[in-house]
Amino acid sequence: MNQDTKIPAPHERSGNRLLAFDGLVFRPRSDTPIWQQIYDHIFNLIESGCLPPGSQLPGETHLAEKLAVTRITLRRALLQLQHEGHLTARKGVGIFVRNLPSTFTVRDGQRFLDNFEAHGQEIGTQTLLILREPAEPAVAERLRLAPDTTIIRLCRIRTSDKQPVYVNTKVFPAHLFPDFEQSYGVCQSVTDVFRAHGVENYRRVETRISGGFASPDEAEILRLTPGTPVFRINAVNEDRNGVPIEWTRGSWPLTSVEFVF
Amino acid sequence: MNQDTKIPAPHERSGNRLLAFDGLVFRPRSDTPIWQQIYDHIFNLIESGCLPPGSQLPGETHLAEKLAVTRITLRRALLQLQHEGHLTARKGVGIFVRNLPSTFTVRDGQRFLDNFEAHGQEIGTQTLLILREPAEPAVAERLRLAPDTTIIRLCRIRTSDKQPVYVNTKVFPAHLFPDFEQSYGVCQSVTDVFRAHGVENYRRVETRISGGFASPDEAEILRLTPGTPVFRINAVNEDRNGVPIEWTRGSWPLTSVEFVF
DNA sequence: CAGTGGTCTAGACCACATG
DNA sequence: ATGTGGTCTAGACCACTGG
User: Fold this and answer.
1) What is the mean pLDDT of residues B87-96?
2) Distances in whole angstroms, Cα of residue B148 to Cα of each of A151, B134, B138, B243
3) Within chain A, how many helices (H) and strands (E) appear?
4) Residue B94: which nucleotide is closest by CA–C1'?
5) Domain that holds residue B28
6) pLDDT at res. A99
């Protein structure tokens, strides 16, 4: 009666929100530490679908009591689950099962939307920021511009089933795209902007993939715990004459994506 | 003697091993939590070279006392530093500054050793295992073999300046390389094995990069804390006729490498 | 306001590695 | 035997969010 919703999750404030945790006993002094056993147990509940994406866990206090461990021990397990992208915690709200988009496969040299082949997921775009400013030295170097040349900075989020899975910042030489804002505004497509300015063909000249850890800002945007590991991608596109037209930097939660080359 | 190697660091068992931690006071209730402040401080000590690679930190008990915090608070900072690859802890031994090889840049389609361009680091190879066995279904599929065809499994570590930075497992169809062990033994080079069996040219047909978290086994091999994030790469090589000759899977610590395509 | 997660303390016992 | 990191407990206060 209380817990059989399809997806999001109910909130039964009164009683036990999730029965899955009842009557469990973890063995101390076993080969695997208690927090690991708890980790494994919750992980299995998620994998098996007993804890569907978006559902809320019981409060840490309740849960710790139910599992007969200290909150600290419980939190050790929860922290690992957060770092691995299975849970997200929001202060003052609760802990939720993260919607892991089964992992995207992103292929090199393709446009973003082309990458999501038949995943059957709602892909959304949200533009956080779009402005013109003088290029900082690092930016100028990447785009082979003189320092302080004006550039256009575009910052966006991609979401899958309402959940943010990718945040990135793109930089363009302003002089190549005088009508950027206008042509972008129509359907938030950079490709459209390129086309509107006569850039039909372009190629990704280099892609760099490195690892990092979510800054507080990134973490908030991606709904992660700060310090969660992320992929950092870094790429430059050139037009057919070899002129750099775009520099992209972006972050994916480590567990949300697979790159294929 | 006991511990006076060149780079690692001094070990003054009696007194304070590292003075860098003396006289610090962290402000509670500040905007950033104490464990974060400790994290930042140690991080800066590492970055600035005050804590050189290989050096040992004071014991957690001492350190916590010196910083005037609980061991738990201190450990929260240390845990993050371990997950980010800056520190490694060995039970019963101590906590050490990890030798981050500044990050390798690994280029697609190149042989391993070719990738380390002018890093000036000692690259080593250690063969952990080499055996013949029937192919499991997953393996057989990748190499397009009938199940239970015998394959050769090779498991190795690559080290940089004595520190393990990469562990991988390669699988080959046994019938293509009858003299594998012999030709491999000479200089531990797979390329040599290929050449010895008449495979001069081959190409990497697909590379997959995903993220994961170090299993206890991996962690021990790579000298990481279990659960530390890692890159997982997954690739198949084919000869010039399109026949799969090698399937590679490997793990890098997230902070040790950058991939360039 | 009540409930949540985030932080922190002061102890304790253990398994492990080293000398 | 000693010192190390790994685990665990039983409390506490805080900032945040929501109704």
Assistant:
1) 91
2) 59, 4, 11, 18
3) 8, 10
4) D4
5) 10-97
6) 73
Tokens read off for A249: 């930097």
Two tokens, residue B167: 């562990």
A47 or B119, greater pLDDT: A47
Cα torsion A112, A114, A117, A120: sign? positive
The 10 Å CB-count burial string (b at 16+, else e) for B209-222 is: bbbbbbeeebbebb
Based on the domain organization, do A59 and A124 belong to the same domain?
no
Judge contact between A202 and A193, C-beta under 8 A. Answer: no
The amino acid sitting at B64 is A
> Tokens in use for A87?
């849970």
A3 part of a folded domain: no
Q: Are residues A24 and A124 in the same domain?
A: no
| Token representation of residue B241 | 């006729």
In a 13 Å sphere around the CA of A58, the CA atoms on its Cβ side amount to 20
Query: Rounded to whole angstroms, how far apart are CA atoms B225 and A249?
Result: 29
Pairing of strands B229-239, B202-213: antiparallel
B8 CB-to-strand D distance under 7 Å = no
Pairwise CA distance, residues B140 & B151, whole Å: 9
Distance separating alpha carbons of residues B248 and A243, to the nearest angstrom: 36
| Phi, psi angle pair for B239, to nearest 5° | -80, -175
Domain total of chain A = 2
List the single protein residue with the shortest CA to C1' distance from C8. B73
Is residue B119 helix, strand or coil? coil
The beta-carbon neighbor of B231 closest among A105, A207, A211 is A211
What six digits make up the tokens of A129? 């920021």
Residue nearest to nucleotide D16 (CA to C1'): A92
Q: Which of A36, A32, A56 is nearest to A46 (CA)?
A: A56
Same domain, B131 and B172: yes
Q: Give tens-digit pLDDT for B218-254.
A: 888 888 888 899 999 998 999 888 899 999 999 999 9
CB nearest to A255's CB, from B211, B254, B258: B211
Residue B251 near residue B223, CB atoms below 8 Å: no
| CA atoms of B146 and B150, how far apart (whole Å) | 9
